[in-house]
Structures are given as C-alpha cells and as structure tokens.
Amino acid sequence: MNDRLKNILEWIFCFVVAFVLAVIIKYFVGTPTIVKQESMVPTLQEGQRLILNRLFRTTHQTPKRGDIITFEAPSKKSYTVAEGIDPESPVAVYENEPTGLWSKFSYYVLEINKESYIKRVIALPGEHVKIENGKVYVNEEELQEDYLREGLETPQKTGSGNIAFSDFTVPEGCVFAMGDNRTRSTDCREFGCIPIGKIESKVWVRFWPLNLWGKV
Predict the structure, then answer these.
(1) Number of structural domains, the chain?
(2) Distance CA 34, CA 97 (A)
(3) Element housing 102 (H / E)
(4) Which residue in 120, 138, 115, 136 sits closest to 179, CA to CA?
(5) Beta pairing, strands 49-53 & 135-138
(6) What is the CATH number of the domain that holds 98?
(7) In 3D, which of 111, 176, 166 has the Cα closest to residue 134?
(8) Residue 86: how many CB atoms within 10 A of its CB?
C-alpha cells in the first residue's frame, strides 16, 4: 500500500469515527438548537440558541412540572368533535411513524424531516387539568405561573369545529405541556397530551445571546 492510499484511508477512518461520535453525543448526551418560534416568549425568544440535555431521555427520566422540554410534533394538530377522541383523556396522535431501519435511523437519530416542539410541562400523569376563566388549575388548585407575562391569561383554544382540551385527566405515561406565550402557542390544548416516549430532551443551557448565557 503506497503512502497516498494509506493517508486517504486514514482520513476516511477519522471521518467515520468523528461522525459516529457526533451522532452518539447528539442522540444520547446533548445537542445545540435554535429557537424558531415565539411560543415560549418571554422565557425564550426566537433566534436564541440552546443546549438540549438528552441524558434526560437516555436515562428514562420523567419530567417535572415546570421543565421545558422538546418533543416530536404530533401528526395531527387538532381534532373535530366528529373524530371521536376522548376529551377527558386526550393523547396526541402519531400516525406517520417511519418504517425500515434506514428510515428510522434518518428520522429519529439524524432527525431528517423531523419536526419538534418546545413547551413547558404543566401537568404529570394522573393529574386533573382544568383551564377556566384564563387560569390553569391542576388537581383543583390554581397553578402559579410566574414565568408568564404579567396579565397574560390562558385561553381555551378553539377553532371552527375544533376541540379545545380544557377539562381532563392526563393519561398515564403522558404529560400535558403548553407554551408560555399562551395566545400564540400550538400545544396540548389542541392535540392532546404527549407520551413520555416522544419527549426528546430537556432544555439545559442558553448560550446565545451571550448576555443571557446560563441555565434555563
């Protein structure tokens, strides 16, 4: 083997090792991301850069109330009364699951064509949630939400013929999550509670802009 071929093979090997390590770290440990929507204002602003903690998923932890998480976006964003979903125990629907080894790898690991949401956990499995008169009640107690803009209320989101989940019990194995910008957030009020297995990460650190660097 001549030196030129040897050098090429060494570079290929280094590239493969680096790629594998990057994929492992991204999927199992943590990864950077950019806030692309305004649903978490004022806590998170569009364009801010975050580090996501994926050890949270790797170690199969259950989120706590108040945690900011990312999760796979459901395939259905809202429901009509005729669709038959249980409004007292709603679970988000995921209909477009990939099939085949490569499809699953590219979707779940490389996250190609995968849409994710970032929201705050409001209620945990088995807890009763009621949204009424602009307030959120968990197990019949008003939730104190100091992270919201002063005076902001939580509307019971409705659309033309759409269900707005506002009085229900969080199903086992699921969480109920909403954006802090309640009037501009597509969240569990419309598509139902998120299975814990669909949670991808917990927001850990904001590293941009630099003047806001720190744990979120």
Answers:
(1) 1
(2) 25
(3) helix 101-104
(4) 120
(5) unpaired
(6) 2.10.109.10
(7) 166
(8) 11
Say if 160 falls within a structural domain. yes
- Tens digit of pLDDT per residue, the chain (216 long)? 677 777 888 898 898 999 889 989 999 999 999 999 899 999 999 999 999 999 988 998 889 999 999 999 999 888 877 677 888 899 999 988 888 899 988 988 888 889 999 999 999 999 999 999 999 999 999 999 999 999 999 988 655 556 789 999 999 999 999 999 998 899 999 999 999 999 999 999 999 999 999 999
Q: What are the tokens at 103?
A: 């499809």
Rg (CA), the chain: 20
Domain ranges, residue 68: 3-210
Length of the chain: 216
Exposure on the CB side of residue 12, measured as CA atoms within 13 A: 6
28 lies in a domain? yes
Helix (H, G, I), strand (E, B) or coil at 166: coil
Residue 136, number of CB atoms within 10 A of its CB: 22
Alpha carbon distance 104, 98 (integer Å): 6
Q: DSSP assignment, residue 8?
A: H
Residue 50 included in any domain: yes
Query: Is the separation of the CB atoms in 114 and 213 below 8 Å?
Result: no
Do 45 and 209 touch, CB atoms closer than 8 A?
no
Q: Tell me, what DSSP letter sits at residue 14?
A: H
Tell how far CA 72 is from the center of its chain.
6
Give the span between the Cα atoms of 164 and 201, in whole angstroms.
26
